[in-house]
Amino acid sequence: MPGIAALASHRKKNRIVSIQVCRGLAALAVVLEHLHNVELKYFPTNIMGVFQYGVLGVDLFFVISGIVISAVTVGKFSNRSYARTFLYHRLARIYPIYWVYSAIVLVAFLYNPLWINAGSGHRVNILASFFLIPTNFAMLIMQGWTLSFELYFYLVFFFILFFVPEKSAPTFLALWGVSILIASLLPASAQPIVGLITSPFVFEFLAGCLIFHLYQHGALRPKAGFALITVALIWLALSMAWTRYNHHSNQLWIDHSPWIRLAVYGSFSSIFLLGIMELERSGLIRFVRPLSAIGDWSYSIYLSHIIVLELIGRFMFHFAAHARFAMIIVDAISLPLVFLVGYLSYTLLERPLITLLIRKPAKTHAHYVS
Questions:
Q1: Is the pLDDT at 119 greater than 70, yes or no?
Q2: SS3 letters across 153-185
Q3: Which residue, 127, 168, 204, 239, has most beta carbons within 10 Å?
């Protein structure tokens, strides 16, 4: 079936380009949300207010992760040699470049702790941060908590690949989801690792697995892609309108409730991704190379952008007299510089590290790491 091999095969021409493009969109959404945070931190303006919803980029990443991991493991279950290779490749793509940026932030933290982790009282568990182990403190790289979830997803899939036959994998994944539902009925645990294991974010990863199953086993009607994307956008617009009129345009009511976030951002991400994949398969949309290239750089962008935004925001705060003008300058400078740094990081650091650690990376999924 056209497109089935897009993520699973080693032929670049069969790649599902829309997934890579959406990785770039997810990274851009997160960058814009953090740019809004920089505005709130340094300037009494609200120019970037609408981009607070960019936090949904994380949910897009989680659903994409489920799609990709499902795709690259087709036909590989109960293959213990592949399971070990799978886990090694995942760790080799997450950790090395993450350690580079963690080391940069660590230097800043050791120089002046007041620069880092204000939300955790400028405290950090350095060892846990480097190895993505959840604690009660934020990590050196603030967005590292999302990588803890990615690592969790990979470890569970490693277990499935190692022990579970492919025909039994859907049952195991369903039981994983049921266990999360049961855990939600129990008293909440104060242990961060328990919170991670029982988080509703698991359902976004499982949604990605289901999306790939649907995509693999039958094409929808060509116009279904447009319908799905329309439904997703209407759902997001309604959520934003509800937020405006009932929560004073503050989306934290979504962000701070995992189950509401799943219902709003998780459902939007799932429906949107299935829709855009179907539009690509039906040939109704095509993507130019620069859009997918941003997807290639997305992990480097994700890791580096807060450093870039903080430096620009702090500089303008100290040297610009007019807040609104300063924020406009920050906006104008930030995005081009974030993309430039992401591109250089991918070209000079991330890709060489992957090449060094993985001799023959599969071209079709070498960069699908959130």
A1: yes
A2: HHHHHHHHHHHCCHHHHHHHHHHHHHHHHHHHC
A3: 204
